[in-house]
Amino acid sequence: MKYQEILESICRDVQSLAGLGKQADYIPALAKVNPDQFGICIHSIHGDIYSEGDADVPFSIQSISKVFSLAIALNLMGDDLWERVGKEPSGTSFNSLIQLEAEHGKPRNPFINAGAIVVADILLEKLPSPKENFIEFIRELSGNPHIDYNEEVARSEREKGYLNAAIANLLKYHHNLNGEIEEVLHFYFLLCSVEMSCKDLAKAFLAFADHKTHFSYHGVDLTSSQVKRINAIMQTCGFYDEAGEFSFLVGLPGKSGVGGGIAAVYPMRYSVVVWSPRLNQKGNSIMGMKALELLTTKTRESIF
Questions:
Q1: pTM tops 0.90, yes or no
Q2: pLDDT at 211
Q3: Does residue 274 carry a catalytic annotation?
Q4: How do residues 105-127 score in pLDDT, each as one tens digit?
Q5: Which residue among 188, 217, 266, 270 is the active-site one?
Q6: Of 217, 240, 266, 270, which is the active-site residue?
Q7: Among the options 67, 220, 250, 258, which is catalytic?
Q8: Which residues of the chain are under the pLDDT cut of 50?
């Protein structure tokens, strides 16, 4: 497959969407990002790398970090994790309070905000040095020792994080948050603030693409079955209430973030990351969604 030529053609094709949507300006630090950037990278399980555009530019991965925190939590708790968070698509906004209240404080899945806040609470409780352990895990996955949190982004999110604070309080009310609310929120925002490039993320997501080898990174050991289940949750829950649309158009397990990034995997073949900050109304990258639709269309490679 001539992936480099395909990426070049995708970059040309998505230019028709340039200027549509806007970056996540409700997070003040992200409002400063140049919205007219686009990068894409494919990393095969055999070590081949193909990239185009702004693939080396670090960006705030936001909710894509929830895949990494889920991997750690699953390692720490095994199937007991599902007592505190579900694995069903939400069908509602990623920051919905209504669904959380109706279901008595058990979030639908670990990728909506409520679920990810519960997972952050678990990491704070179970890891010896949560902040250091999490970032070292990502550094090892990506092979980049310079990846770090962006404290400005984390502070910016907390300043405007009224809904997330309400979610944390509701979780606490329903006895599904063990830590102190402010401590859990700070750690949650910190996880979302991690900055990586398309190339960094594509390398990191290889661990979820090559599920026939034993997943063992920085003390996190997962079975092949557990990695497959993480992929299943990405497939059904990775794009907020647009997961069905992504499955229909793209056909790969993946996770998006409001920083404009999307990471996806073709199991046993490659990982792919695309970044473009302008979002649609669901919070997903407009050019990113289209780029991945074009990728699986042009290559005729999807899991279906």
A1: yes
A2: 78
A3: no
A4: 999 999 999 999 999 999 999 99
A5: 188
A6: 240
A7: 258
A8: none
**pLDDT value, residue 7:** 98
173 part of the active site: no
DSSP string, the chain: --HHHHHHHHHHHGGGGTT-SB--TTSHHHHTS-S---EEEEEETTS-EEEEESTTS-EE-GGGHHHHHHHHHHHHHGGGGGGTS--S---S-TT-SHHHHHTTT--S-TTSHHHHHHHHHHHHHH-SSHHHHHHHHHHHHHT-TT-B--HHHHHHHHHT-HHHHHHHHHHHHTT---S-HHHHHHHHHHHHT-EE-HHHHHHHHHHHH-TTS-EEETTEEE-HHHHHHHHHHHHHHTTGGGHHHHHHHT-S-EEE-TTSEEEEEETTTEEEEEE---B-TTSSBHHHHHHHHHHHHHHT----
Active-site pick, 44, 51, 60, 63: 63
23: Cα separation from own chain's centroid: 17
pLDDT digits (tens, 9 = 90+) for 166-224: 999 999 999 999 999 999 999 999 999 999 999 999 999 999 999 777 799 999 999 99
Instruction: Determine phi and psi for 97, rounding to 5 degrees.
Output: -90, -30
Q: Is 188 a catalytic residue?
A: yes
| Pairing of the two strands 39-44 and 215-217 | unpaired
| Neighbouring residues of 3: CB distance < 8 A, sequence distance ≥ 6 | 42, 48, 50, 299
Of the residues 51, 60, 66, 285, only one is catalytic, namely: 66
